[in-house]
Amino acid sequence: MNSTPLRRVAVTGLGIISSLGNNRRDFFDNLMAGKSGIRRISSDFSCQLSGKIAAQIILDSAKCFSKKQMGIFDRTDQLALIAASQAWNDSCIELDDEEKKRAGVYMGTGMGGAQALDDLYDQLYKKDAQKVSPRFVTKIMCNSSASHISIQYGLSGPCLTFSIACASSSVSIGEAYRQIKAGYADVILAGGTESLLTYGSFKCWESLRVLAVEDVEDPSTSCKPFSKDRTGFVLGEGAAVFVLEEMEMAKKRGAKIYGELVGYGSSADAYHITGPSVAGQAHAIRLALEEARINGDEIDYINAHGTATVMNDVAETQAIKKVFGEMAYKIPVSSTKSMHGHLMGASGAVEFAAALLSIKNKAIPPTANLKIPDPECDLDYVPQHGRAGVKVKTVMSNSFAFGGTNAVIIAREV
């Protein structure tokens, strides 16, 4: 049993790549402007899809990686390495060999190398290949991104990957926070990565009937969380990575601090493999508040899971009201999935980035496309337009996954 007193944990670096921008500044500026990263896709298989929209990243990988690296990395690895590089450089952290032994990597991903898996199946079953590249093994495995980051920076502390559907990266951040808090590590690169814009993935989600119907007037407005006319989510891709650091270490070196992680709650619905549970979500929220040792009236903004599916939006609304009571109506809540899409395993990290940047910028991003209120979703969802110049000191980020795992993170201004 580790006898180290519980420690504080700071976020000292932030990196992000998404359909809304390939750096934190563009990402948040576009969020606040209500700009959408959702557009019609031009993939070879798009003609075989019932819905032809996604929140796809514009990226010339050849400018970021060598030809050899392109053969080694799946797209999820590429996105993770770009976000990790931004976070590492942003933190200005320097570690010697001994310090690297107490530094690690915690990543979340829902499917890992989805593109590599699709390519493999294409070669085997469509082209009848008798031999495939051995690189498929390491490109497909879910822990490849974390491993590549660990190798890139020589971090020989804990290197773990969490694959828990939509809660993957929120869990990775929460568990990394706990690792540092308990004294088992001093620095952890934590976050998530996902790229599921493959033919197989689209067809699977189509079959569940949870993908948004394309808005015929403007495809970019197809995702409408908490709105009466919502029809589902839009698949997206991206990555977000944070440098989590023991607070005194960060202060000693004069690090820039985005915020302090103060609470993390994780629960299981123990109810249904895909259906949301109000009780399970509320339990995770309460656990995060209890660990943070704060009252509900101290939460200034909630970045909601907000998938724009009929069941989830109502359940999350009810869970928030169950925990906060009448105070729920006074807390701004928004779903940024309306703009950057649903990044599955990377959603929690990207949305936590939005929440942290809300503290830094004293601004709350909107729930875009919310024009028709749903009577069952009656909270302050910051409809259509962001709010600048507001008090934002303490934020909460919700992630609720298929399988019934719920993860909630709380951070506050330092």
Characterise this structure.
With 414 residues, the chain is an alpha/beta fold. It folds into two domains: 9-252, Peroxisomal Thiolase, Chain A, domain 1, CATH 3.40.47.10; 264-412, Thiolase/Chalcone synthase (Peroxisomal Thiolase, Chain A, domain 1). The chain contains 14 helices and 14 strands. It has a ten-stranded mixed β-sheet with strand order 5-4-6-7-1-8-14-13-9-10, sandwiched between helices. Strands 2-3 form a two-stranded antiparallel ribbon. Helix 12 links the parallel strand 9 (301-303) and strand 10 (333-334). 55% of the residues are buried.
Query: Judging by the overall fold, what is the CATH architecture of the largest domain?
Result: 3-Layer(aba) Sandwich
Strand content: 15-25%
- Looking at the structure, the CATH topology of the largest domain is Peroxisomal Thiolase, Chain A, domain 1
What separation lies between the terminal Cα atoms? Answer: 30 Å
Q: Determine and state the CATH class of the largest domain.
A: Alpha Beta
Number of strands: 14
CATH superfamily of the largest domain: Thiolase/Chalcone synthase
Report low-confidence residues grouped into runs of 5 or more: none
